[in-house]
Amino acid sequence: MERALRQNANLEEMLKPENPIEVILLRQTDFREGLLWGRPRFGHPEGRVVFHIREVLNNVDKLQLSCEETRRKLRLITFTHDTFKHQEDKNRYPRDPKKHHGAIARRYTAQFTNDLTILNILEWHDEAYYIWRLENIYQDKEASQERLEQLLSVIGEDIQLYYLFFVCDTRTGDKNQAPLKWFEKTFPGISPVKI
Predict the structure, then answer these.
(1) What pLDDT was estimated at residue 5?
(2) Residue 191 falls within a domain, yes or no?
(3) 3-class SS at 44?
(4) Is position 91 within any domain?
(5) Surface-to-core class of residue 50, CB atoms within 10 Å of its CB (0-12 exposed, 13-18 middle, 19+ buried)
(6) Distances (CA, A) of 63 to 114, 134, 149, 170
(7) Cα separation of 27 and 24, whole Å?
């Protein structure tokens, strides 16, 4: 019990929750378990999910957003987007999209908010990368175009927020920056930012 309390305090100190939902999330045992999962790997040399989340939060801060609502949404997406990677089944191909860590994060976060913008971005946060990979690595223009249209249909008017999160998430660790450059050339209606 005492160890769990110290661990919770360390997570709060590291992530500096700014609102009641962030505080509640950090007090959930299953949420903390996801934050503490991970080891160094390509794209995530930082290892544990909590260290990646701290990097993404630092990038959210660098955006210097004037809209507090946008900042709040980006922080909540950041808190939960990769926290359930440890529950994703990567042993089956093709993968079940309902078992993707983004879909798990959406279902979990729906306990705390009914904001469809946040929930949609959580579920689809990796999709732009998958589309880039289809187009540029696998040279499957038709499949990438279909998935792009589907993503745009789901995200709709929230494309700028999706983009802001994609920037903050991609500018971490040793991630390939080509998908971000591709995103900025491919997606309509975004205002590029530099961080």
Answers:
(1) 43
(2) no
(3) strand
(4) yes
(5) buried
(6) 25, 29, 28, 14
(7) 5
Residues, the chain: 195
Burial class from Cβ neighbours inside 10 Å (0-12, 13-18, 19+) for residue 41 reads exposed
pLDDT digits (tens, 9 = 90+) for 140-151: 999 999 999 999
Strand partners for 41: 44
pTM for the model stands at 0.93
The CA distance from 113 to 19, in Å, is 13
* Total tally of structural domains belonging to the chain: 1
In a domain, 7, yes or no: yes
195, two tokens: 């961080």
Which stretch of DSSP H or E encloses residue 155? helix 141-155
For residue 62, give its domain range: 2-186
In angstroms, the Cα distances linking 194 to 12, 22, 163, 191 are 28, 26, 12, 10
Cβ-Cβ contacts under 8 Å for 108 (sequence gap 6 or more): 30, 31, 80, 83, 84
> In this model, does residue 179 exceed pLDDT 90?
yes
Residue 96 DSSP one-character state: -
